[in-house]
Amino acid sequence: MDAIYTAAATATHGRDGRAVSSDGTLDLALGIPVEMGGNGRGTNPEQLFAAGYAACFGSALGVVGRAAKVDVSDAAVTAEVGIGKQGEGFALAVTLRVELPDGIDAETGRRLVEQAHQVCPYSNATRGNIPVELVVE
């Protein structure tokens, strides 16, 4: 792959520190979720992954929608990223909830979401590594 763009960010102090992008646009306090024993102050890696995946998937849906001449510009994608124990370590699981605009029939909507799942870089990166469930609403 020839990279068109490369993002860089540095995190210090792990889940209870700070994350800053190389251009300074992203500068966030990180915090451990209450459910994992933290105080919940600050964002966490799962939230960042969810936001990135949702945005990327929404763009992929736009690409396949335009190719099919179906207007999906008002679609909303919610990525739910779960983390849990797996063996000695931890693992992730994702549910992508895609809310399509009115007027798109269920069969067309499902087909577009499945096509977006084939072209989305996040989907391609996670395929075979973590479970990703697609829910069309």
UniProtKB/TrEMBL annotation:
Species for this entry: Streptomyces ardesiacus
Annotated TM spans: none
Name used for this protein in its record: Organic hydroperoxide resistance protein
Pfam families associated with the record: OsmC (PF02566)
Signal peptide region: none
Family membership: Belongs to the OsmC/Ohr family.
